[in-house]
Design brief:
The complex is a heterodimer of chains A (about 325) and B (about 250). Chain A has about 325 residues and is of the alpha/beta class. Helix content of chain A is about 25%, strand content about 30%. Chain A has 2 domains: about 170 residues, Rossmann fold (3-Layer(aba) Sandwich), CATH 3.40.50.620; about 120 residues, Rossmann fold. The mean pLDDT of chain A is about 95. Chain B has a single domain, classed as Rossmann fold. The chains are: A alpha/beta (about 325), B alpha/beta (about 250). The complex binds flavin-adenine dinucleotide and adenosine monophosphate. Adenosine monophosphate (AMP) binds next to α1, β6, α3, β8 and α4 of chain B.
Chain lengths: ~325, ~250
C-alpha cells in the first residue's frame, strides 16, 4: 500500500514545507495501517534519512538523466513510477508552485482523484473525505472520492509540522522516465538570502500607509528580528515600491503563515483573500475604522512610524531574554 | 495561430459566500458571476497575440446555459467565437476531459487556462488538460512570448521566477503579469454589438465521470473580536503566551 509523499527540495536541501507534508502523510498512513515513502527527485545533499523524524519509513531518491531542471510532467512520471513499483494508493503533495503543477499531471498519469487545498487530515477513508478551503478562504468544503487512488494537495503551513519520531532508510531508484524534449528551462531567478513568501511561517507586510519606498527599512528590520518574510499590498507593488513577488492577495500570492503582521494596510476584501488563512493576524493602522481590524486577532491603533520601531525593539529584548 | 482560452464562470470577488440545501450546495442567490479574473488576463493576452501575429481566439466554458452571458462578455472583449460544453462542471477531471476533447478536434496551438478558479481554488484543470494531451504546461504563468512554433514562458516559483522554452502546442495557467492590469481589455460598445452575432455553439459533453465531489460546505468560524492593545510590550506578550506565534 504505502503513502507516497513528494519530498520537495531546493538546491539540494529539503524545504521546510516537506517536513509538514511528510508528517501529514504519516497521519494518513497511520490511519490506513501502512507506511510513508518519501520520494525525492534529482540531486539531494541533505541527509535523506532526516525525514524519518517526521514519519517517513523509506526515502527514495529518484535519479536519472531526465532530472536536471524542474519539469512537472517528468517529476509526476517519476512519482508514478515509484508508486506503481510499491503498489501505493495515496499521494501527499504540498501546494507549492511546483507541487501545484505536479499534482494535476500526476492525477492523469496515475489515474488518481486529486483533492487540492486540503487543510486538515482526512476525516474518513471509506469514502476518502478531506476538508479543503475554497472561495478564497470564505468557505470550507468536505470533498469526497471513491477512487482507488487519491492525491491530496495540502495548503502550505495550514496543518503544521508534527514530529512522529523514527528512522528512515534511504535508497535510490534509477528511473526509466525520459526527459521532456518539448520543454527546456532556460533560467531560474530566485531571490537570495530571503525566505520565499509561500514558505515563510512569519510574515511582515506593509501597504500604502508606509508612504514611500525608503520607509521599508523599518519593515525589513522588523522582519529580520522575527526571521520573517516580507509582503506588501497590491498598490505598493503596482507603483514599484516593492517587487511583485511580495504582492499578496486575490491577484497575488496566497499565504497561510502562522503570524501575519499587517502595517498600514486597509484590509480590502481582495487583500484578505490572500492572507485570511493566517493563524494569527496583527494589524497596525492609525485608522481605528480600518476594515482590517475586523479580520485581526490583535491590533494596535497607532502611527506605524512610531509603533513599528518600538515593536522591533521590544522583540529584540524578547529574543535576547529567550 | 489558433488560441483556446478556457473560461470559468465564478462569483464576483466581493460576493458574500453562503450555502444552501442543508449546506450541501453553494447558494448562487444574489451572486453576480464574472469571468474568472485569472482567465481575463489570459483572454487579453490571447487577443494581443492575435492582433500581433494573426489567428483566432476561441473561448470555451463547461457549464449550463446560465454561463452564456459570461461567454458573450468574452466575445465582446474580443474573442472570435465561443464554445459551451453543456454540462455541470462537476469536478476538475470532468472539465479537463471536456476541454481535451475539444482540443483534439480543433488542434489549437495555445491553450490558455487560469492558474485557478477563484470559486473552488482547485488549480487543477490546466495541468490535467496538459497531461491528457501530453503537452508542456506552465503555471502560474506570468509572461509569454511566441516566436513561430516556440513559446518562451515565465512562471512563478517559490521566491522567484523560472523561464522556459517550449514547443507549441502548450497549456498555461495564467495570472497577472501575462498582461498588466492596465492593459486588460474591457468590452466597448462596438464589441458588445458585434458579440451578439458572433458564433456561440453549445455542444454535448463526452461521457467522462467526475472523480471527486463536494459533500458538505461550512463557513469558517467567525473571527473573535480583535484585541486592541496600546503598547508593544503587551503585544509581544500576547503573541508569545496566548497566540504562541513567537
Ligand atoms: C480585482 C481586484 C483585485 C485586487 N487584488 C488585490 C490583491 O491581490 N492584493 C491587494 O492587496 N489588493 C488588491 N486589490 C486592491 C484592494 O482593493 C485595495 O485597493 C488595496 O489592498 C489597498 O492597499 P493598501 O491597504 O496598501 O492601501 P490603502 O487602501 O490606501 O490603505 C492604506 C492604509 O494605511 C493606513 N495608514 C496610513 N498612514 C498610516 C500610518 N502612518 N500608520 C499606520 N497606518 C497608516 C490607512 O489608515 C489605510 O488603512 C484588488 C482590487 C481589485 C479591484
Ligand atoms: N467549467 C470550466 N470551463 C472552462 N474552463 C474552466 C472551467 N473550470 C476551470 N476552467 C479553466 O481551468 C482553470 C483552472 O481552474 P480550476 O482547476 O477549477 O481551479 C481556470 O482558470 C479556467 O481557465
Amino acid at each position: 500500500m504505502a503513502v507516497i509523499v513528494f519530498a520537495e527540495s531546493w538546491e539540494g536541501k529539503f524545504k521546510k514545507i516537506t517536513h509538514e507534508a511528510v508528517s501529514y502523510a504519516k497521519d494518513v498512513a497511520n490511519a490506513e495501517g501502512t507506511d510513508v515513502i518519501a520520494v525525492t527527485v534529482g540531486s539531494i545533499d541533505d541527509d535523506a534519512s532526516s525525514l524519518g523524524k517526521f514519519g517517513a519509513t523509506e526515502v527514495i531518491n529518484v535519479t536519472g538523466d531526465a532530472f536536471g531542471a524542474f519539469n512537472a510532467s517528468v517529476w509526476a512520471a517519476a512519482l508514478n513510477e515509484v508508486a506503481e513499483a510499491k503498489g501505493a494508493k495515496h499521494f501527499v503533495i504540498s501546494g507549492t508552485n511546483n507541487g501545484k503543477m505536479i499534482a494535476p499531471m500526476l492525477s492523469v498519469k496515475a489515474n488518481a482523484a486529486y483533492i487540492s487545498n486540503a487543510i486538515e487530515v482526512p476525516s474518513n477513508f471509506s469514502p476518502f473525505t478531506v476538508r479543503r478551503s475554497a472561495f478564497s478562504n470564505k468557505g470550507l468544503v468536505d470533498y469526497q472520492t471513491t477512487a482507488e487512488k487519491v492525491i491530496v494537495g495540502i495548503v502550505p503551513n495550514a496543518i503544521g509540522v508534527k514530529e512522529h519520531g523514527g528512522d528512515a532508510s534511504a535508497s535510490s531508484h534509477a528511473s526509466s522516465v525520459a526527459a521532456d524534449s518539448k520543454s527546456e528551462v532556460l533560467d531560474v531567478d530566485r531571490v537570495k538570502g530571503k525566505i520565499p513568501l509561500p514558505e515563510a511561517d512569519l510574515v511582515v507586510s506593509a501597504g500604502r500607509g508606509m508612504k514611500a519606498p525608503e520607509n521599508w527599512n523599518m519593515i525589513e528590520e522588523l522582519a529580520d528580528v522575527l526571521g520573517a518574510g516580507t509582503a506588501c499590498s497590491k498598490p505598493v507593488s503596482d507603483i514599484g515600491w516593492r517587487p511583485h513577488s511580495e504582492h499578496v492577495g486575490q491577484t497575488g500570492i496566497q499565504i497561510n503563515p502562522s503570524l501575519y503582521i499587517a502595517i498600514g494596510i486597509s484590509g480590502a476584501i481582495q487583500h484578505l483573500a490572500g492572507v485570511s488563512g493566517s493563524k494569527t493576524i496583527v494589524v497596525i493602522n492609525n485608522d481605528p475604522e480600518a476594515p482590517f481590524f475586523k479580520a485581526a486577532d490583535y491590533g494596535i491603533v497607532g502611527d506605524a512610524f512610531e509603533v513599528v520601531p518600538q515593536l522591533t525593539e521590544a522583540l529584540k529584548s524578547f529574543k535576547a531574554n529567550q | 495561430m489558433k488560441i483556446l482560452v478556457c473560461i470559468s464562470h465564478v462569483p464576483d470577488t466581493t460576493s458574500k459566500i453562503n450555502f444552501t440545501n442543508d449546506n450541501t450546495e453553494f447558494d448562487t442567490n444574489g451572486v453576480q458571476f464574472i469571468i474568472n479574473p485569472y482567465d481575463e488576463f489570459g483572454l487579453t493576452k490571447a487577443i494581443q497575440l492575435k492582433e500581433a501575429q494573426g489567428g483566432t481566439v476561441t473561448v470555451l466554458n463547461v457549464g449550463d446555459n446560465t454561463t452564456e452571458p459570461t461567454l458573450r462578455k468574452a466575445l465582446a472583449i474580443g474573442a472570435d467565437d465561443a464554445i459551451r460544453v453543456d454540462a455541470k462542471p462537476s469536478d476538475a477531471y470532468f472539465v479537463a476531459e471536456q476541454i481535451a476533447t475539444v482540443v483534439k478536434e480543433n488542434e489549437y496551438d495555445l491553450i490558455i487556462c487560469g492558474q485557478e478558479s477563484i470559486d473552488y481554488n482547485g488549480g487543477q484543470v490546466g495541468g490535467m488538460v496538459a497531461a491528457m494531451l501530453d503537452l508542456p504546461y506552465a503555471s502560474p504563468c506570468v509572461g509569454m512570448d511566441i516566436d513561430g512554433s516556440t513559446a518562451t514562458v515565465l512562471r512563478e516559483i517559490d521566491g522567484g521566477k523560472e523561464k522556459s522554452k517550449m514547443q507549441l502546442p502548450i497549456v498555461i495557467g495564467g495570472k497577472k503579469g501575462l498582461v498588466e492590469e492596465k492593459d486588460l481589455r474591457i468590452p466597448n460598445m462596438r464589441g458588445i454589438m458585434t458579440a451578439r452575432t458572433k458564433p456561440l455553439a453549445a455542444r454535448e459533453a463526452t461521457g467522462a465521470e467526475a472523480r471527486t465531489s463536494a459533500v458538505k460546505f461550512e463557513k469558517p468560524a467567525p473571527k473573535a473580536d480583535v484585541k486592541l492593545v496600546d503598547n508593544v510590550d503587551d503585544l509581544v506578550n500576547l503573541l508569545h503566551n496566548e497566540a504562541k506565534a513567537i
